[in-house]
Write a structure and sequence with these properties.
The chain is mostly helical and 292 residues long. The protein has one domain. 52% of the residues lie in helices and 2% in strands. The protein is built from 14 helices and two strands. A two-stranded antiparallel ribbon has the order 1-2. Strand 1 and strand 2 form a beta hairpin. Helix 5 runs parallel beside helix 12 and helix 10 crosses helix 11. The C terminus is likely disordered.
Length: 292
């Protein structure tokens, strides 16, 4: 039997017959740390800042199938209010106290719940969490759905659930956001802007005129560009607009905090809709900011 140098666990043994099978050089050996040593910590995946220009271009090329692009599902169901120890007990307690003490107690509960939901989606502004989150649940839900690539349509079922079971949908949004800390990091890194300013309605006079003279037509045309039925969504698409705005903002990497959204929603509703419709309509008299 000939004696050849052999690599055994990284050491070269000269002139000795070794019965163990050789270890290939490309194999990596997992070494157990010695007593008193601490094993090296695994590096956590870093959240990369999204490129708003790339996201905007991707949106423009696929907006006619916007609501069909999701590939995942909600991690909990709409009515899984007992999925954690927070939603169901606090809601029942608030409703029971409301029956005995009146509305103010329930409103205090609603503000508190708005606060924790806004924290879950990464809203940094204290005033926004306190004052604006309570009118932005469907908007926050749209951001969460789009950022997590959840397949959910803004159809009649969605409208019914938000109209009749808004609490359950709001809690579902909080649960989804709270389970993934990377979601709030991703939303916080958005840096894009709307193509049209809030008061720049005349930048796209076609949209502005349509909103002013025939709002259902403007809404129907907007949803038609997202692959929906113009007539149906022109008549019934109103409750979906805030949700869709959240999805469009997340799809294009647009930075819009809850305070900004809340002020627009309360004081400048028609201008806010012109801004959203013009974003999907495309350049209509003014060049886009993304070089398209």
């Amino acid at each position: 039997m000939s004696v050849q140098p052999m690599v055994v666990q990284g050491a070269v043994v000269q002139g000795v017959v070794v019965a163990a099978s050789p270890v290939q050089p490309q194999q990596k050996m997992m070494m157990r740390p010695a007593v008193g040593q601490v094993a090296p910590a695994m590096a956590m995946p870093q959240v990369v800042a999204p490129d708003a220009q790339v996201m905007a271009r991707a949106f423009e090329t696929s907006k006619n199938t916007f609501f069909e692009q999701g590939v995942t599902a909600w991690s909990s169901g709409t009515f899984d209010c007992c999925a954690d120890g927070q939603d169901f007990p606090t809601c029942c307690g608030a409703l029971a106290v409301e029956c005995c003490c009146g509305c103010p107690t329930h409103e205090a509960y609603w503000i508190w719940y708005s606060w924790i939901t806004a924290e879950a989606v990464g809203e940094p502004d204290t005033c926004a969490k306190l004052c604006c989150a309570c009118c932005a649940y469907d908007y926050m839900a749209g951001k969460v759905v789009q950022a997590k690539h959840i397949r959910e349509d803004a159809d009649c079922v969605w409208c019914f659930l938000w109209t009749c079971c808004g609490y359950c949908k709001a809690w579902q949004t909080r649960r989804e956001a709270a389970k993934d800390p990377r979601l709030r990091q991703t939303l916080a890194l958005y840096s894009g802007t709307w193509n049209q300013g809030l008061l720049g309605c005349m930048d796209n006079p076609n949209v502005c005129l349509c909103v002013t003279c025939c709002y259902p037509c403007a809404r129907g045309n907007f949803y038609a560009k997202l692959g929906k039925n113009c007539f149906l969504y022109g008549l019934c698409g109103g409750p979906c607009l805030s949700y869709t705005r959240g999805r469009v903002a997340a799809a294009k990497g647009i930075k819009e905090g809850l305070c900004e959204y809340g002020m627009k929603f309360i004081f400048c509703g028609p201008c806010m809709d012109c801004q959203l419709f013009a974003e999907v309509e495309g350049p209509g008299g003014s060049p886009g900011k993304y070089g398209e």
